[in-house]
Write a structure and sequence with these properties.
693 residues; alpha+beta; Cytochrome Bc1 Complex, Chain A, domain 1; 3 domains; 13-stranded antiparallel sheet; seven-stranded mixed sheet; 28% strand
């Protein structure tokens, strides 16, 4: 398999954006505070308890209808994902329409309709308002959940989990909430493939039956419609919706750790670390602290001009951007200060984040910082009012959270009356550098030692990708296992040294999809080190060819040819060797057995290959079968270093040698599953195929 495949593919399908040239040597000054006027809304309530808010706006002949259910968070336990699945099932058909018929009816009137576990949204031309309301009512009142549609949804959910399993941002998205809220909290529980497999149609039907009730519903109607007409339509299409008592769920409190803890997720292929300093806080929506906290966060790290970004990006040059968040929540909020940095400055970055947190607590903020933050939030608030939907959301928030009816009308008045003393008091209340989780997803071999000093206990807590605590020493190599035995076991597993040695040439064809386009790959090799690679995306829409004749290499595509030189050429020389594992030493490759890790739920020996060009490649061999199950390499590209991860499975015998027939490749968030369609061995490939002109 071509280790450079994904980096080449990324270059073909990613287009770099163009930016206008601006003077970045000085920060732009704040604009004048806009004059704010919040639009009006009208409301009514049906006998079944559905609360409706109407914002009349005839600027455009369009209408939008948002239904929101106000329910307590639900802990799903071992069936995490069934609520999400139920929300998706709402859109897959009704008592009178199949999914295809529903899609056709929506498309016919040029509308859109989407569903979730907490509501439904529909929009379209105002002349189709009644039809939109009718279809939305049908979806809400008479959905029809089927096993076939649930199976499709579960398959998509599992595919999503698989595509993100090695994505560092997705890993942080798992571990962070699990730590700050707890895995037994609705905000902290994680969805796994096993959870999704356990979801049943009965669970989804029960969720709909219990929670899709009008008495916890809020409907916002925004657009070119008269209030009286809106009221008549809602009564006609949602008046028969039956109210019922909705289950309530107690949401337990989450507390910041008593001492600072450092959590590390080892991702050995990472050339960068994702860093997040986080912890839960009590900050309720509409509370006296909410507006003050928003100003505090804006000053600390909530904007490009925040202290965090000025320090880590502008002063230190550690990152492209650093941000913080501190937003209220009905149940439990949280503070977060996060960024991505190269391995070498991971500990320095954590140090600077904690220092900035200590500084804002002890030294406070200045009047200039506060004034700038007030102007930024004033502008943001004003821009939000350009959308009529905002007015409807304000009305719903007032009703849902019991806010003062003039809360938003007085928002700017309160915002601009906040004093430095109030912000400084909030800093001491909400900024807690000594009671935080320092969470890092990165290469433990390179960053672990430097992180220990931030842990009050002096030790690191290690977690896997799904926030399960692990002992890094628990997978010590068994006695007697050596690099030689691991490689010998692999050779024996795939057919033995004699059989593998007889492979003089090999051609492999495979197929897959990326971003909806079909991808076909053909790779040919000829001993000792001739190589041919042909990539086709979208049936000829994009192509890429690589050749290596043993001395020179050529890459062609998009009407251009490029002879590879330097590191690219050296990398090609190494990757083109046929069955190098039979005698690493003769090719200048030094293998090193460094430990064991879990790959696809099974133990695997971790082997680092030290290549002649000074770079490294990491390979994993199943401890039971001996097969190579994973390979990781870092390559350079115009977008920066790219980590390419390839997993191998479904080994099948071809002419006495076992070859993987399923190859899953991932770079960043992109995942491509390739299926090998054909393998030909010892067909006497001509040298002309590899010739570099």
């Amino acid at each position: 398999m071509n280790k450079r495949f994904l980096s080449l593919l990324m270059l073909l399908i990613i287009t770099a954006p163009l930016f206008a040239q601006v003077d970045r040597s000085k920060m732009p000054g704040p604009g004048p505070a806009p004059e704010i006027k919040i639009g009006d809304y009208k409301s009514f309530e049906l006998e079944n308890g559905l609360k409706v808010f109407v914002v009349e706006n005839d600027n455009l002949p369009r209408i939008s209808i948002q239904l929101t259910l106000d329910r307590d968070p639900i802990f799903e336990g071992e069936n995490v994902g069934y609520i999400n699945a139920a929300g998706q099932l709402m859109r897959t058909g009704t008592a009178n329409k199949t999914k295809d018929q529903l899609d056709e009816a929506i498309d016919f009137i040029g509308a859109s309709l989407s569903t979730s576990s907490t509501g439904v949204f529909a929009s379209g031309l105002s002349k189709q308002t009644e039809k939109i309301m009718e279809l939305m009512s049908e979806v809400v009142l008479t959905p029809n959940f089927t096993q076939d549609e649930l199976d499709k949804i579960k398959k998509q959910m599992i595919s999503g989990i698989q595509s993100q399993k090695d994505d560092p941002n997705a890993i942080m998205g798992n571990v962070r909430p699990a730590l700050i809220y707890g895995k037994d909290h609705p905000y902290g529980e994680l969805m796994t493939e096993e959870n999704v497999e356990s979801i049943t149609l009965e669970m989804c039907n029960e969720y709909y039956k219990n929670y899709f009730r009008p008495n916890i519903g809020f409907m916002a109607i925004v657009g070119d419609i008269d209030f009286d007409d809106a009221k008549d339509l809602v009564e006609d299409y949602f008046g028969s919706w039956v109210k019922a008592e909705v289950p309530t769920n107690e949401v337990k409190a989450s507390r910041a750790p008593l001492i600072r803890k450092v959590a590390l997720v080892d991702r050995s292929s990472s050339v960068q670390s994702i860093v997040d300093v986080a912890y839960p806080v009590k900050l309720e929506i509409g509370s006296d602290d909410a507006i003050v906290a928003s100003l505090l966060n804006m000053i600390f790290g909530g904007s490009f001009s925040g202290r965090l970004n000025l320090n880590l990006r502008e002063d230190k040059g550690y990152t492209y951007g650093a941000r913080s968040s501190l937003s209220p929540d009905e149940y439990i909020a949280d503070f977060s200060a996060s960024t991505s940095v190269r391995n070498a400055v991971t500990d320095s970055t954590v140090d600077q984040i904690l220092e900035e947190m200590k500084k804002i607590r002890t030294e406070g903020v200045t009047q200039d910082e506060l004034s700038a933050a007030q102007k930024l939030l004033t502008g943001s608030f004003g821009r939000s009012l350009e959308q009529p939907q905002t007015v409807a959301n304000f009305a719903i928030n007032i009703a849902r959270y019991g806010l003062d009816k003039d809360y938003y009308k007085n928002y700017l008045k309160r915002l601009n009356s906040v004093t430095v003393e109030e912000v400084n008091k909030a800093a001491k209340k909400f900024i807690k550098p000594n009671n935080a989780f320092v969470i890092v997803v990165g290469n433990a071999d390179e960053v672990a030692e430097g992180l220990k000093k931030f842990s009050v206990s002096g030790k690191l807590d290690y977690y896997d990708n799904f926030a399960n605590e692990v002992d890094p020493a628990a997978k010590a190599l068994p006695a007697g296992v050596t690099i030689e035995s691991v490689i010998d076991n692999y050779i024996n597993a795939i057919g033995g040294r004699d059989a593998v040695s007889k492979v003089n040439d090999l051609t492999m064809e495979m197929k897959g999809t990326v971003q909806g386009m079909e991808v076909t790959v053909k790779i040919s090799r000829k001993a000792p080190n001739k190589y041919y690679f042909n990539l086709d995306v979208g049936g000829g829409m994009m192509t890429q060819i690589q050749k290596f004749d043993g001395e020179e290499a050529l890459m062609s595509g998009m009407g251009q040819n490029k002879n590879l030189e330097g590191d690219d050429l050296e990398s090609m020389k190494t990757s083109s060797i046929v069955n190098a594992f039979l005698d690493f030493a003769s090719y200048g490759i030094t293998p090193e057995l460094v430990g064991m890790e879990t790959v696809a739920g099974k133990n695997a020996y971790k082997v680092v290959l030290n290549l002649p060009n000074g770079k490294k490649s990491t390979e994993y061999y199943d401890t039971e079968t001996g097969f190579k199950v994973k390979e990781i390499q870092v390559t350079s590209s115009p977008q920066g270093d790219q980590t390419i991860s390839v997993e191998y499975s479904d080994y099948k015998e071809v002419d006495g040698v076992m070859y993987a027939h399923t190859i899953a490749q991932q770079v960043g968030p992109m995942n491509i599953n390739m299926t090998v369609s054909n393998i030909e061995v010892n067909k006497g490939l001509e040298d002309a195929l590899f010739e570099v002109e």
